[in-house]
Structure formats: structure tokens, C-alpha cells
Amino acid sequence: MALKILSGCINCDMCEPECPNQAISMGEKIYEINPDLCTECVGFYDKPTCISVCPIDVIITDPAHIESKESLLEKFKHLVNTDRI
């Protein structure tokens, strides 16, 4: 399951530097999470760091991108191998 930042985001800049996959970037108005890069921190941490640091709790599981822990781990492995090439 990729994560999603809701429209209530205040652009506090807390989440973007915490993302180990560089999946978070500034969109037109608020930060956005690229579902192709988001692994919910599987492979790095026990919990998504963006959720942990968000001061207003506007990061949720994206219902449009449902993935199992196994598929998130596979995505992580692919991203790590891609980064090394």
C-alpha cells in the first residue's frame, strides 16, 4: 500500500527529508507521494517515517494503491538493486 498525503498538508517540510526512497516531493500545492517509489518504509524501518513525523496526521494509506507487505518488500528490493546499477 502506498501512502497518500491529504489536502490538509501544511507543507511543513518534515516528511520529504525522512523518506528513504525519495518518494515524497513537492506537488503543485502540497507534498505528494509517488506510489511507484513508496514502500511504506518496508526494508528500512518498522513504520513509515513520514507518518511518524507528520505534525497534523494527513498521511494515510492510499486506497488506490493497495499492496501486501510482500509486494512492498519486492518493490524495496527492486529499488535497491536499481540504485546500485
UniProtKB/TrEMBL annotation:
Residue ranges of the 4Fe-4S ferredoxin-type domain?
A: 1-29
Quote the InterPro entries the UniProt record gives. 4Fe4S_Fe-S-bd, 4Fe4S_Fe_S_CS, PSI_iron-sulfur_center, YfhL-like
Cofactor(s) needed: [4Fe-4S] cluster
| Pfam families in alphabetical order | Fer4_7
What cellular-component terms does GO give this entry?
cytoplasm
Q: Name one GO molecular function term.
A: metal ion binding
Look up the domain of life of the source. Answer: Bacteria
State the UniProt keywords alphabetically.
4Fe-4S, Electron transport, Iron, Iron-sulfur, Metal-binding, Transport
Instruction: Tell me the PANTHER family matching this sequence.
Output: PHOTOSYSTEM I IRON-SULFUR CENTER, PHOTOSYSTEM I IRON-SULFUR CENTER-RELATED
What is the name attached to this protein's record?
A: Ferredoxin
